[in-house]
Amino acid sequence: MNVEVAGKKIAVRYVPLDSLGSYDHNAATICIDEKIKGTQLAVDTLLHELVHAAFGVTGMADALGDSLEEAVTVCVEQVYLPAARKLLTRLGEEC
Ligand SMILES: [Zn+2]
């Protein structure tokens, strides 16, 4: 599977990992631990790594630095995305 982020093709691979997921900017690849494939945790991990990819592609990752990038990524994944999902669901119900 591939996902396009700001025009850049990012490969998504399910592989054995010691963590849930990772994003490698130079390889343009998101890796998800194959043990969680098909679960909600895999979806959440993919969305988390997709945020890292967005920061990498736009150069924000370099500007933020590793620890701040992780904190902002977790905020986007765990706060922004759930709020956006709820809002889109409400808007869909109103249309
Ligand atoms: Zn992360």
CATH architecture: Orthogonal Bundle
Low-confidence stretches: none
How far do the termini sit from each other?
A: 32 Å
> Which small-molecule species are bound to the chains here?
zinc ion
Number of domains: 1
Helix content: 55-70%
Major β-sheet, in short? 4 strands, mixed
Structural class: alpha+beta
Quote the CATH topology: Arc Repressor Mutant, subunit A
CATH class: Mainly Alpha
Please, how many helices?
Answer: 3
3D architecture notes:
This protein has three helices and four strands, in the order E-E-E-E-H-H-H. With about 100 residues, it is α+β, with helices and mostly antiparallel strands. The protein has a single domain, classed as Arc Repressor Mutant, subunit A (Orthogonal Bundle), CATH 1.10.10. It has a four-stranded mixed sheet, covered by helices on one side. The mean pLDDT is about 95. The chain binds zinc ion. Zinc ion binds next to helix 1 and helix 3.
Produce the secondary structure layout:
Layout (H helix, E strand, L loop, with lengths): L1 E4 L2 E8 L5 E4 L4 E5 L6 H19 L1 H5 L1 H29 L1
Helix pairs in contact: 1-3
This protein binds zinc ion (ZN).
In short:
By secondary structure, the protein is of the alpha+beta class.
Descriptive keywords:
single chain, 95 residues, alpha+beta, Arc Repressor Mutant, subunit A, 4-stranded mixed sheet, 3 helices, 56% helix, 22% strand, binds zinc ion
